Amino acid sequence: MLAQLLQFLFSGITVGATYALAALGFTLIYNASNVINFAQGEFIMLGGMLAVLFTQAGLPLPAALLLAVLVPAVVGVLIEKLAIEPVKGAETVTLIIITIGASLVIRGLVQVFLGKNTHSLPAFSGDTPIEILGATLMPQSLWVLGVTAVVVVVLWYFFNRTLTGKAMLATSFNRVAAELVGINTNGVLFMSFAMSAALGAMGGILITPITLTSYDVGIMLGLKGFVAAVLGGLGNGLGAVVGGLLVGVLEAMGAGYLSSAYKDAIPFALILFILFFMPRGLFGAKVTDRV
Amino acid sequence: MHKRAYTGLYIVIAVLAVLPFVLPNSFYVDLAIRMAINAIIVLGLNLLIGFAGQISLGHAGFLGIGAYASAVLPSHFGWNPVLAMLAGALATGALAALVARPIFKLKGNYLAMATLGLGIIINITVRNEAQWTGGPDGMPVPAFGLFGFELTSDKHWYWVVAALLTVSVWASLNLIDSPFGRALRALHGSEVASRVVGVDVVRYKVAIFVLSAVFASLMGSITAHYVGFVTPNLADFFHSIELVTMVVIGGMASVYGSLIGAVLLTALPQALATFEGWETVAFGAILMVCMIFLPKGLVPTLAAKFGKGD
Amino acid sequence: MALLDVTQLSIHFGGVKAVQEVSFSIDPGIVYSVIGPNGAGKTTLFNLITGVYKPTSGEIRLDGESIAGKSPDELARRGVARTFQNLQICMNMSAVENVMVGAHLRLDRNLIKAALRLPSITRRDAELRAEASELMRFVGLDQYLEARADSMPYGALKRLEIARALAMKPRVIFLDEPAAGLNPKETIEVDHLVRKVADSGITVVLVEHDMKMVMNLSDRILVLDYGKKLAEGTGEEIRRNPDVIAAYLGAHA
Question: Between the CA of residue C29 and those of C66, C195, C200, C203, what are the distances in Å?
């Protein structure tokens, strides 16, 4: 009983950490620009696929992983420069379609150049499972959780203790005011796309040894990251992390105890439930329209 | 909205009347039918997105309910196709009405999330209930018959769909230029202003959402009967996005834009088929380029350029 | 009997007490002005009375019937109309359509009849279009009868809002700074327009910074300061009130 519960919990928080990284990516871009970046999932896919490509090409693991984070970051910046900046202030639905277009381009390019096969990556520290109270934990899960924890701490430090971070935060509260005090808000936009692509890619790399990857895994991972971000209250960083873990755990529990066939439906059923009863997500602020 | 808006309707009728006589072969007749079906769905969706200013990223789900009602009920339970179609529309309408109230208390990105979630749940259900739906492989749909007369040839289908499209364009034009339509456009233009003149905004959003969902469901049924086969792809997220893209590329809040958007995006995959393997890249790139350079969509941009109202 | 009775009305946003225990009453047929420094809570008061915000506490009665917390469309049904300090024009519609929307509640709003373009709908719409054009002339927008809203200058849009509110055939109209941002000539025109509206029998409640206009038009004046009622009375009484003088000359600051 307990072993089974623990097992579901382990796999839930592992996947949940990936969702959390994706949700943080959504949050960063949303705060900088009010754009929901539907290409976020593709960064996850890109991270995993590129890590596979570079390791197979014979690069040492650390170099391969670094490159697999940097390339998506550059792609993120390109999207921002070429597709988001030129249409600042467009309607929500226009922006949604632009980012979906970007996601199709990324997915299509990966499909053309890397093929449709499913790939795996060797676990970073072997495959010997760790036994805890009858449940097993893969060492790779510790990598996922560890890196996610480090990322959260670094981000917290960045936003609360560095000038650049504070500038990004200020922009998210009030873009015009931020510009008036001399913050380069385009720079902020640039930074947030780079960072959120890198976060997504990291998640994709870390989870690949556990869940495998292929050119089309990005959509679902991205959409679940979006669920996590909304669950935590769009724009709230801590909420995104909690939302990600919660989505992962509930998905694993639902798949284990209710129906594994409906595993992918669980996050969406959850978000509908939350939105209907708590329209601002778990940690979203109440807003009064000014007229 | 002037009388001029209706001149476009005559052009639509003329084109639809001439088309079957100039199309070289059945491949093009088939393409024309699918364009017309999409155009009808997009007309409904544009009322919601373009005119009322509300997003739906889950409309393919409603399409799927209609399509599968028309597939499952006659196949498994021997229902009359017309009854099955109506049952699908009714179920869609009921589901849309049930979720609409909480959904339309949400705005912008939250609304996008909720509709997206709804569509995905419908899609996953269709994929999983294989004993009824054939699962990911899909299932055949019996022919559509009414009073002993079976719709089988493409020409017959063409005239049926052309008639439906004509009526839909006419009804959309009527609706927009009516007290109901003005209230819809007003709540998009300024929600608070429309509220203080007495528009019950949630009620209008719900009404137009249910209407466009029922439109989608009916056309889902028609698609299923016409193609003779349904797969879950009809109801997937990507198809929802395709439909929204038709609205936006043709032009939000433009009736004729809906038609142009549907025609272009239905033809696009055919045109891109020559780019073997590169279809997805090309499709994505075209979406981006259109939205970056024509954010208002084709018809409104061109209309503004040539100084004509829509 | 008073048309509008407000007692002990308050609203708090978190810790901010935007309106605090304000009471006043408005007799039918008069021009009643609400003045006060920026941030005094004038627009918030309008938002409360017209149902855009729900009060934290207090009572609002229209003809003796409680309307506190009712939605804007319910208030519209009871003949309450308003304009906005920050323009709320539907830029996706033509000017005359904006005015026609004001008549929303007087029309047959049936979806199916509309989709079928039944003669009853089109006939009524044609009448309404004529009526809306007439209202646009009344507010001095003769030259914009065929215009799109997004092609009109600011001053004209201000008056378009008034025409839309009048299309409701309201009993009371709340005008939130109708002259803000207008040049002196336009301000005088709006002054005359408000007088014409009042003369047509509609009760006018006015928020305005232009003191000349306020003194010129108002039967009674309410002064708000920091969300509280500072004074109330005729123009002459307000002009002589030491608290008001102190507030306006910045004794508080």
Answer: 20, 11, 9, 4
